[in-house]
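Study this fold:
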Amino acid sequence: MLLDPIHLSALSSILRHGSFDAAADELAVTPSAISQRIKALEDRVGAALIHRGTPCTGTPAGLRIAQHAEDIGLLESRLVQELTLKQATGPARVRIAIPADVLATWFIDAMALVDGLLFDLVLDDQDHSAEWLKRGEVSAAITVGGQPVSGCDSFALGNLRYIATASPDFIRQWFSPGVNEQTLASAPCLTFNRKDSLQRSWIAAQTGRRITPPSHYLPSSQGFVDAAIAGLGWGMNPVGLVRPALEDGRLCPLKPNAPLDVPLTWQVGRVLAPALAPLTAAVRKVARDALLPEQSQHLPSGQCP
């Protein structure tokens, strides 16, 4: 079933901007023209594609078709480059699912190495970014572990190292008896969102028990660091984000030499892999410097209680 590229561009624009009016502005047409294009596309596929609201959002079918349109744009951009034709339509757009901590620590450096792409980043918990690929809603993703997603090329990147950190005053208040089942069950911890299992994974690794401590929910990587420094709770932070605070003593590890290493994998749809080869090369290059191999690394400890 062939779909009109003009109709596809209207759908993609609505989902990017959240309204028919904004899509009309981007495409330099009237809102009525956008409505007509969406109606024609919905009639063509026989399904609703947009939840009309504020903002407008995509139905499962709409999200999948919009991603298909962006995939086509990537492939056309690659063809233009290979034929050394003038690219008149502007840069291609690529939608990628990545964990927030990856964005906060190193992924922007990889983005900066690639020309000719507009990035649409979907931030999700590290254990769930692969689901976006499985649903066909992104072109590539950084996932946890080495389990390949069907239809994707996979590249092991290395380990993102986390440390359980808290302020010295917080540790004195909650962990004076030691870091054990009892203190971990009562001390408030920081959790990114309800999908985040890092803190529970670290507790299980240290105690052999599944414990659910009281939690603050803070969906911000830098907010995690700031909240830990402020004494709101303890949390798992990437070494790269907390190194300065560990070195000057504003934060301390809950336990010395007890990191949690999370293996990351770059996965890209196989059909799009040639078009995204420069991005794949950039991601792998930056990851080599930013992430750890399996062997351990010296950790700054600061002046801790």
Observations:
- The first helix runs from residue 5 to 17.
- Residues 296-302 have pLDDT under 50 and may be disordered.
- The two ends are 66 Å apart (CA to CA).
